[in-house]
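User: I'm putting together notes for a lab meeting next week and I want to include a structural view of one of the chains we've been expressing. I don't have a solved structure, so I'd like a prediction I can at least talk through. The sequence is below, exactly as it appears in our construct file.
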Amino acid sequence: MNRPADHPEIPAPKIGVLLINLGTPNAPEPGAVKLYLREFLSDPRVVEIPQLVWQPILRGIILNTRPKKSAHAYRQVWMEEGSPLAVHTRRQAEALQGAFGPEVIVDHAMRYGQPAIAERLDALQAQGCTRILAAPLYPQYCAATTATAVDEVFRHLRHKRWLPAVRTLPPYHDDPAYIAALAESLRASLAALDFAPEALIASFHGMPQRTLELGDPYHCHCRKTARLLSEALGRELEVAFQSRFGRAKWLEPATDRVLTALPGKGVRKVAIFAPGFAADCLETLEELAIRGRDTFLTAGGTDFAYLPCLNESGEGMTMLRILLARELEGWAGAQ
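Assistant: Thanks for the context. Below is the predicted structure for the 335-residue chain, given as structure tokens.
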């Protein structure tokens, strides 16, 4: 049957894959950082304090003191193309374009900042995507990361009249493809060092202890990742948690305290990596590679190395192709 002459143009049906990461300011300047932190720290999934109590603290103290300090940290790791997290996430999406057939469009978004999830969902629908796989790039599930990304996807779509079919990428903390990619990447990074680390530290992003007590599986996922990776590498890993914030009790042991204590135990050569991050960012490049190094050497260490995240490496992209292809199975055009 022929389409009526006045019928609006409808693009051919396609499938969208939206890679989602946490977010970043648009520039390493206090004003841009303040806008980013306001959005990030106003998320009740991130700060689980009643907003009537939290917002005066956030707007009265934190947003008037922290942006300048954070902007300085961002400037130390900023790339010519922009924030490391934004650059690597964009490169991952570009490398996956065409990997699942011509009908699958791969895009990326940030939960906080730009490009926004709402904007990229609209763009995918405008290109004809009637099925969308939302893929939060967090190996270990946490309500403050995975859940809030999925929340934002459905929060935006709830205002649409014509909804796409939606799938979400599950956590992959124990997936063989993820463990194999990490092991291969670490072996290559360790082989390139000019010293033999006496300790290998897996530093995961910290979370308040309360999240574990309330049922968040994040701590267990981190521990399982470390155990499986230790078995794959055939060597023991030291597990630590970084990025404490505020006065609440956080998951332990703390990365900075571990680095401070190791030289006193006779461990003076270490390598550290961050298996919970899909791409290098402020927390890996400034907190670990710069401040972590200073902490360890000041405490008496002699050799320190930060080993990079998977980013858009061959190992990392092979892993993402496997994970995403699995979730696209049964949808037309997926290979």
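A couple of points you could mention at the meeting. Strands lie at 14-24, 104-113, 129-136, 165-168, 199-205, 238-242, 269-273, 303-306. The chain has a mean pLDDT of 95.

User: Perfect, that's what I needed.
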